[in-house]
Amino acid sequence: MNIHEFQKLMRRIYYHRDSKRGTTRTFEWLVEEVQELGEALKERNAKALEGEFADVLAWLASLANVVNIDLERAATIKYDGKCPKCRQVPCNCSV
Ligand SMILES: [Zn+2]
Asked: Helix 3-21 crosses helix 23-43 at what angle (to 10 degrees)?
């Protein structure tokens, strides 16, 4: 399954709820899932971590569906084989 297919799956399963919930509350759910991912990272529980990564991706796809953004298209336009800032591989930005 690629990113586009995953986003379409999330649309089939959740769009009826996501669209009613709206952008702000769907974003808040995404933030909550990111926080749960942060907690799982501290616990170093591999199974919990895997589940939290999946949840973050699912909520990101749900939010993208609510605002009609094609995640795969957005990602491949911005990250077209190199760092979008320094245009190099690997990234050579000073951080
Ligand atoms: Zn860079």
From this structure: 120
